[in-house]
Amino acid sequence: MPSPFLTPGSTAGPDTVALLHLRRDQTIPTILRTFDDQNLGYKEGKVSNTRFGSFPHSTLIDQPWGSQIAASKVDTGSRGRRGPSKRKADELDTPGTTTGADDDTPSLSKPVAAGSGFLHLMYPTPESWTLSLPHRTQVVYTPDYSYILHRLRARAGGTVIEAGAGSGSFTHAAVRAVFNGYPQEQPANKKQRLGKVCSFEFHEQRAKAVRQEISDHGLNGLVEVTHRDVYEGGFLLGDPQTGQSPKANAIFLDLPAPWLALKHLVRKPASGAESPLDPNSAAYLCTFSPCLEQAEKTIRVMRQLSWLNISMVEVNHNRIDVKRERIGLDCEGIRGATVYPKTVEEAVVKLQEDDERAKRLRQAHYDGKTDDPKVQEDKTRSSKESAIPASTGPSYSQGRLIHRSEPELKTHTSYLVFAVLPRDWTEEDEQKCRQQWPSQKLDAPEPKGGKSRRQAKREAKEKCMEEIKAGENAQPTVEKVEEGNEA
Amino acid sequence: MHSSIRPHQFVAVQLPSEQTRLVKLVPNTIVNLGKYGSFSANQVIGRPFYLTFEILDTPESDGYGLRIVSATELHAETLIEEAEADGEGDDAEAGDGTPLRTNREIVDDASTQRLTLEEIEELKKEASGAGKDIVAKLLESHSALDQKTAFSLAKYTLRKRKKYIRRFTILPLDVNLLVNYSLQERDAGRTMELRDEHIGLLGCLANVHHGGQVMTDPIPDVKPNGRYLVVDETGGLIVAAMAERMGILYPRDDEDLESEEQHSTNEGKEQTKEVGGAGSKPYRRIRPRPMSAAGNTITVVHAYSQPNLSLLKYFGYDTNNPDESHPLHTNLKTISWLQLVNPESDPILSAELPFMPAQELAELKPSKRTAYFFKRNRWERVKNVVNEAREGGFDGLVVATLLTPASIFKHLVPRLAGSAPVAMYSPTAEPLVELMDLYSTGRRTAFITKKRELTQNSSDNEEVDLSSLYDEFELDPTLLLAPTLHHSRVRAWQVLPGRTHPLMTGRGGAEGYLFHGVRVIPTADHIQAAGTFRKRRKVVTSTPTTDQDVEMAT
Fold first, then answer.
1. What pLDDT score was predicted for residue A189?
2. Which of A188, A296, B309, B361 has its CA 20 to 30 A from that of A270?
């Protein structure tokens, strides 16, 4: 089954993961089902209930991705009275009678559209998944993992080792980076290296949860989850000693003590086991540690183990809010606006008005005409109906456009330490290379101004025409050979 | 892909001064590194990347004039320092009589270095050991060396070494390196001051990835995967970065040979095919048609008649002289704004040549025939690309441009498939802030209200005239969900034993901002937002507006 993360297609098929987008930063992941998989007893089949209404999956399945979907009227009340626990008890009382029959009859009632409420049906991406995933540990967020994967050169066809699968956000991003085809579609006789993520997690329950998630997301075969403590066991697949090497090009360590795992990430492990690194390419490494001491210790061990180009960075990311800021005495009653003079002129007019009003009130007080409706009006009214003209135009384009950081910032995530380990290069390799590329052989520098471009082109054309003639003799159908000329 | 240094490949040569040079390694030639010396290309071809070489004063017997510097040697100083620190323990400096060295006594003038300029020049001429001798001599003859603190000594050694040591490191030329090279060594403005963190985030936000294998027998109705729209005014850097993510940037080489066959059949090209029977004729190579791939493609929309993708030359793809085996040859499509927006008036598209049967062709003069093929093929190619682009259904949009964002979004956002992301980079915040405002909640509410009014006023069967709507609203704010503005910046640290701190200086200039949104398909009927938040409104006593209601839609 293709994964909706990688090849979502154009519509939301059954049994795929979909994200129900309610509002910014509020998304509910769900698996679309044509039947009531948790047996919750809805008449409409499986239903997702949100704060903006209920959405039977029959209204979602086979809709184009990105569609706005209206909520439906779903009877949640009577179902609630039955309750799943009671239902279970019923099942036990009368085994194999009613419930089995219920499941077999797919005659689900048709959903009725509700008056209000909607959501958007989205396919999952590592980014949206990162924002909606169930937290098991600290999550590696998009700004960090995007930079890490770029620096790790995690590219289509590569293999990434990830230790500390955690909540699985990095796993999803990494598998997208290396993806270049599903393994089951690979014809047996052709050997193209397919991208793969080898994920290690030492917490058994978390490892199990990640494995389940991977299978739900259609990523089986692209991600291999191993439950192991990599400090001790290393990074081979299967058996820690004799297992198969993942042949990794890139390694990401999100561990409390990455330096303890580094001894396994060498070209020739002391234990005599196979190296988990790809022997034919440089290995890129990144460790992710929140504390400076951890990073320092890691770098020390990296230097001892001959890692090169060691560098440490931190990523500062913030989201920026954009809004319109309105200031002025004419903004009274407008949400989010500040009632305050916007210019000196406005302030002067306001001061004069206030002064005059005060004078009138004083005068009225002297005259004893406080009951006069005009005076009453003066007392109560504020500057609302002042001489300042209200600004015109639609409200959405009023005020000054401003931008600033979101209210809560993540000021530190972790220190990222990057390093690279070149391929192993033996004296033997070197000698072979010297034979192939003799050290002293030198060509005479190319004479300047050889064939002109034009001349070269003409020659190529002539050659081409000859070829055509030859081709026509053999076969009258004209092949499109000349198209190369167009460049 | 980057397993070893290939002949005729562009590589980056890093010098001790931290300078980087991009060099094409042609076999049997000499590469000159200026004051650091020169080396023969043959002596590095075939070797792994990331090795540091030292230029020997006297070549080995077989003429090999380089020495590979081991990692231990590169880290030597730090390793020694660390070992010493371990031996002394932490309280070594504070106690036992030896006073802490400070810079109190140091008088900074030229007299401390006892070697004169002439002497140094002399040394340079005769010194051996790839400059190590010079550095050692300089250190020796520095009169105030024993007064220096560990920190300043380290700095002094480093400075001298950068100047004199004859070493270089060969790095693979990939997008990561090119980004930093463009930023530091060249006119950064030409690549819009793009940084690594922007490239990474841009690709992730736009969900750019390989589209998977193309089915051997494609089902006609299934849309191909991995089609991306790109607007790139960074000279091809964005295209290169996206192509790298999609696995189509690097030329296929020998080590991927097994995979090549599969690729080529899948992507609509054939290797070689025997023409005619009886073995009388030689093989004829059927060339892959340019821009012919169905999936895993990049479509670049450009403002001038030709796109500027000059940086792609570093990856073996030259737009003027295309290498037909390069994946970009089939998977990179280009289309001008004129062809996209107003194809009728495009000079190429409007000049269709009538199809000529083979017999008629055979009677033509060779030059005429060539001209016919050239024009016919060009017309066909452009027509296919234009039709495909106008049909839409793209999986993502990546933008880094000088054009006003709104004008791009107006034409390209409707051509995205539902749920497809949009990511745009800008060196400055202002264009993106304006763009954010075009998708503001207030504007969207006003748009929906006005649209409803217009549709209600007209009768059922009549085509609704929405032109007045688009006069007021430049683009349809209901097509993008959750518009977000990001800013990301990486801060580099120096990590040395006891001297860990962020780097003291860095590059200023453009901050770099990213816009992100997701294309959605609004329903035709009007839907009321649910969740009226009545309770909250009572608390907030200021007058309620429609904003609150619709906020849930974001």
1. 46
2. A296
Q: Which of A303, A396, A474 is closest, CB to CB, to B79?
A: A303
Give yes or no for A323 touching B (CB within 8 A).
yes
Angstrom distance (rounded) from CA A36 to CA A79: 13
Residues A118, B523: C-beta atoms closer than 8 Å: yes
Q: Are A462 and A469 in contact (CB under 8 A)?
A: no
Give the pLDDT confidence score for residue B160 in this predicted structure: 72
> What is the mean pLDDT of the segment spanning B394-399?
95
List of chain A residues whose C-beta atoms are within 8 Å of the C-beta of residue B79: 303-304
- The Cα of B96 is separated from the nearest Cα of chain A by a number of Å equal to 27
Chain B residues closer than 8 Å to A121 by CB: 419
Please give the pLDDT value at position A441. 75
Candidates A192, A396, A412: best to mutate against B (most CBs of B within 10 A) is: A396
Interface contact flag, A481 B79, Cβ < 8 Å: no
HSE, CB side, 13 Å, CA atoms: give it for residue B231: 24
Neighbouring C-beta atoms of residue A69, cutoff 10 Å: 19
For the entire predicted model, the pTM comes to 0.84
Is A307 an interface residue toward B (CB < 8 Å)? Answer: yes
Around B59, how many Cα atoms within 13 Å sit in the side-chain half-sphere?
Answer: 11
Choice among A266-270, A272-276, B546-550 with the minimum mean pLDDT: B546-550
In this prediction, the answer to ipTM > 0.95 reads no
Query: Are the C-beta atoms of residues A119 and A54 closer than 8 Å to each other?
Result: no
Phi, psi of B316 (to 5 degrees): 80, 15
One-letter amino acid identity for A459? Answer: E
Could you tell me which of B299, B471, B313 has the C-alpha nearest to residue A394?
Answer: B471
Scanning A305-445, the segments in alpha helix (DSSP H) are 344-367, 373-380, 427-436
pLDDT-based confidence at A476, cuts 50/70/90?
very low
- The arithmetic mean of pLDDT across residues B368-379, rounded, is 88
pLDDT value of position B535 = 44
Nearest Cα to B298, choosing from B236, B346, B218, B251?
Answer: B236
**Sign of the CA dihedral with A254 first, then A257, A260, and A262 last:** positive
| Chain B residues within 8 A of A181 when measuring between CB atoms | 210, 212-213
B200: its two tokens: 């990474």
Q: Give which of A7, A50, A302 to mutate to test B binding, by max B Cβ within 10 Å.
A: A7
Flag if A185 and B209 touch (Cβ within 8 Å).
no
- Which residues fall within 8 angstroms of residue B306, CB to CB, at 6 or more apart? B319
- State residue B90's pLDDT score: 47
Q: Which of A16-20, B11-15, B64-68, B296-300 has the lowest mean pLDDT?
A: B64-68
Q: What is the pLDDT of residues B106-135, one digit of tens each?
A: 666 666 666 677 777 777 666 666 677 777
A286-to-A72, A168, A301 alpha-carbon distances in Å? 48, 17, 13
Mean pLDDT to the nearest integer, A189-209: 86
Residues of chain A in contact with residue B259, where contact means CB-CB under 8 angstroms, are 190-193
Is residue A185 within 8 angstroms of chain B, CB to CB?
Answer: yes
